[in-house]
């Protein structure tokens, strides 16, 4: 008699157990698929369709800066990116000084000088005019000054002053703004607009660690969001049934 009760209790327990598991599996299967992450802004595509910014895009590619910037743009939990892009005719009209006599390292610095390792919306630039020089991706002495002149954002590179003429893309974490002139860093081209004689190209500048902000990609790859667990109240009921069965089993034995 005792044996039969024992057998019965065991079967009961197994049934409850499998029911719990089945319920758990069903709940897991039913939970909706996690919402897909929004696609990161594709810098190549942005510069391809607007502009024309083909010259700047070619420089981004030839100096390998594009990968650095796209990596920064891809980080959803990072600082973001602000990029200033001159149109093709800004490069054409850049005669004296020109970019043609720069070393590869200097050219890369000039291109990195057009990017800030932080996302700024157009309205943020008003604030930036109060904080003073802003660090660019080129690092070190390669800073830009922003001034708000009756609603127009002026950008000063030390060598030249230009303005933001339009917004190509502005949605965190990526801002791309068209500027009227190529930004020439003081650190390479000297302190000011030349009067008559062109400033002699600076000797090979010592170059600060330009790639530093882009090296850390580890936090970019995050696992997919965890699947939803069955509701805790259901789990409580299951555990309760388990406990009761245990008591029953003990009392039978
Ligand atoms: C980015 O855009 C370019 C040009 O439209 C395209 O060739 C490239 O495949 C795109 N890259 C990604 C990752 O979507
Ligand atoms: C940026 O993200 C896109 C889409 O997720 C991916 O195809 C591309 O390889 C990434 N690029 C970099 C430089 O991380
Ligand atoms: C570039 O260098 C060449 C020769 O090395 C020189 O003739 C030319 O004037 C230089 N251009 C500029 C813009 O400095
Ligand atoms: C800009 O400055 C104002 C006050 O000067 C401040 O309230 C606001 O939070 C600042 N915005 C940003 C993005 O720093
Ligand atoms: C930026 O402004 C500071 C003063 O606030 C000045 O000392 C510096 O030379 C300026 N730099 C550029 C690149 O305009």
UniProtKB/TrEMBL annotation:
GO terms for cellular component: plasma membrane; side of membrane. Residues 1-22 form the signal peptide. Residues 199-231 are annotated as: Disordered. It is a lipid-anchor; GPI-anchor. It is found in: Cell membrane. Residues 40-183 form the FAS1 domain. May be a cell surface adhesion protein. This is FAS1 domain-containing protein. It comes from Saponaria officinalis.
């Amino acid at each position: 008699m005792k044996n039969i009760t024992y057998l019965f209790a065991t079967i009961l327990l197994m049934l409850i157990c499998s029911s719990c598991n089945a319920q758990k599996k069903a709940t897991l299967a039913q939970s909706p698929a996690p919402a897909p992450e929004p696609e990161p802004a594709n810098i190549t595509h942005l510069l391809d369709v607007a502009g024309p910014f083909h010259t700047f895009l070619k420089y981004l590619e030839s100096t390998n800066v594009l990968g650095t910037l796209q990596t920064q743009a891809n980080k959803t939990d990072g600082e973001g990116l602000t990029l200033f892009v001159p149109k093709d005719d800004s490069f054409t009209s850049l005669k004296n000084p020109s970019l043609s006599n720069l070393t590869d390292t200097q050219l890369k610095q000039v291109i990195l000088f057009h990017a800030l390792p932080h996302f700024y919306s157009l309205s943020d630039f008003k604030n930036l005019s109060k904080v003073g020089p802003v660090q660019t991706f080129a690092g070190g002495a390669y800073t830009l000054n922003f001034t708000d002149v009756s609603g127009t954002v002026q950008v000063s590179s030390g060598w030249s002053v230009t303005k933001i003429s339009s917004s190509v893309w502005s949605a965190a974490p990526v801002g791309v703004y068209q500027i009227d002139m190529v930004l020439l860093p003081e650190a390479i081209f000297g302190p000011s607009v030349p009067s008559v004689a062109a400033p002699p190209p600076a000797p090979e500048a010592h170059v600060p660690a330009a790639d530093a902000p882009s090296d850390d990609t580890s936090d970019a790859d995050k696992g997919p969001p965890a699947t939803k667990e069955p509701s805790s109240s259901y789990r409580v009921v299951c555990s309760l049934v388990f406990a009761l069965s245990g008591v029953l089993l003990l009392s039978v034995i």
